[in-house]
Q: What sequence folds into this?
């Protein structure tokens, strides 16, 4: 169904309203008007809706559901320009809406990369009619070649909310240092994909007992941790704001925890696949959808990521949604590209892996998906306050559902979670007052 044909909603009634930014967790009704949250009325009793559901064109019955700020994803690959066969800004944004996201940041490793003002403008133009807000992340170096800094100020002026070399690290510490000195003028973060290129070399999975047994070249945890440590030192040195992408090892979490204690301006994110999957699963299936960068790690690492999300060491959950064509993933493990799609399975994995087992409560989990990421890139949304844009996600936290590749809105299908039963289902997404997804 085309979201443009969907109804408008003026009251979301009777749900459990959780707004981590405002410290709100109570039953009530959210009134929407002119694309904004008009007011929130809390109720002592959750038994009855405030109004009879006469015309369902106006009132959404949210009983049994959680009403939250629209989710914010700091880490998405949209593939446009360059690989529109895998994803476009439109299809990626539609997949985001299906996953409950109302704001996404798109990484610059497109073809051509987002490394100048013109390309930032192109992305924003393409996103104008999209199903969620799209915020471009600019490259750190021209052509992502690691040599010459981009015109960061121009890109920020055009709407870039951060800079990143995602897909790889800036190998030169000197170039990374100058990028960090530069961003201090604009108060945007440097988002760092941490991977020492010489240690990662041609590794295709986590280096450990499983890679040894399979005879596959590995990427050691140290390849990530060395760059996390380097960039933390550079952030401390320059005073820049550093955000570590897709933290995958226990050691990286430890480094970030210590840096925060020392007052370094560092934040971090974890991807759902890193708190849900393990390197040893590759031995069972050789499913190339399990090939990601950084790679799936061990149970010890997975537990450390969960603990770091729970204790505030990691600030947000970001999908690293990375669409790939079937013909490229349908290949030998060593030649298949890295990455999996993640927008449409994120909430269900948070429910299944984090909330239902009791590691996190919903208000805390939602803080990692709303308030915190919005603050890191300083974009609107991430809260449900009166007068704010009506970016809202309604989901059933207990509904189980089976992931069906045929129902993805993404243009790509590369998810290892197909066939999994997840817990927590998006029922309704509203962006700027417009319904962008409705669970049918
Ligand atoms: Zn990356
Ligand atoms: Zn990425």
A:
């Amino acid at each position: 169904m085309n979201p443009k044909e969907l109804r408008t909603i003026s009251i979301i009634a009777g749900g459990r309203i959780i707004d981590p930014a405002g410290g709100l967790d109570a039953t009530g009704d959210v009134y929407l008007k002119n694309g904004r949250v008009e007011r929130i009325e809390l109720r002592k009793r959750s038994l009855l809706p405030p109004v009879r559901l006469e015309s369902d064109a106006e009132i959404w019955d949210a009983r049994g559901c959680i009403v939250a700020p629209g989710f914010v994803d700091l880490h998405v690959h949209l593939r446009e320009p360059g690989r529109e066969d895998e994803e476009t800004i439109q299809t990626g944004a539609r997949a985001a809406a299906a996953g409950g996201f109302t704001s996404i940041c798109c990484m610059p490793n497109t073809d051509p990369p987002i490394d100048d003002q013109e390309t930032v403008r192109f992305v924003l133009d393409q996103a104008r009619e999209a199903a969620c807000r799209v915020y471009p992340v600019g490259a750190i170096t021209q052509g992502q070649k690691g040599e010459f800094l981009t015109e960061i100020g121009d890109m920020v002026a055009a709407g870039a909310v951060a800079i990143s070399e995602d897909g790889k690290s800036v190998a030169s510490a000197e170039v990374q240092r100058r990028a960090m000195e530069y961003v201090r003028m604009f108060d945007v973060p440097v988002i760092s994909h941490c991977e020492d290129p010489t240690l990662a070399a041609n590794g295709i999975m986590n280096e450990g007992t499983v890679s040894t047994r399979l005879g596959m070249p590995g990427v050691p945890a140290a390849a990530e941790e060395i760059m996390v440590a380097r960039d933390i030192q550079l952030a401390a040195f320059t005073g820049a704001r550093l955000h570590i992408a897709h933290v995958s090892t226990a050691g990286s979490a430890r480094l970030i925890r210590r840096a925060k204690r020392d007052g370094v301006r560092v934040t971090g994110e974890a991807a759902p696949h890193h708190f849900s999957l393990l390197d040893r699963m590759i031995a069972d299936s050789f499913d190339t959808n399990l090939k990601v960068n950084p790679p799936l790690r061990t149970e010890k690492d997975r537990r450390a990521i969960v603990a770091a999300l729970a204790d505030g060491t990691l600030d947000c959950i970001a999908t690293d949604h990375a669409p790939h064509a079937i013909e490229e993933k349908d290949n030998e493990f060593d030649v298949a590209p890295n990455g999996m799609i993640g927008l449409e399975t994120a909430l269900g994995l948070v429910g299944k892996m984090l909330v239902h087992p009791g590691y996190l409560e919903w208000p805390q989990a939602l803080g990692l998906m709303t308030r915190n990421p919005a603050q890191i890139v300083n974009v609107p949304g991430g809260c449900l306050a009166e007068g704010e844009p009506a970016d809202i996600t309604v989901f059933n936290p207990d509904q189980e559902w089976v992931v069906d590749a045929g129902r993805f809105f993404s243009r790509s299908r590369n998810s290892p979670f197909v066939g999994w039963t997840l817990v927590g289902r998006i029922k309704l997404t509203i962006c700027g007052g417009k319904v962008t997804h409705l669970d049918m």
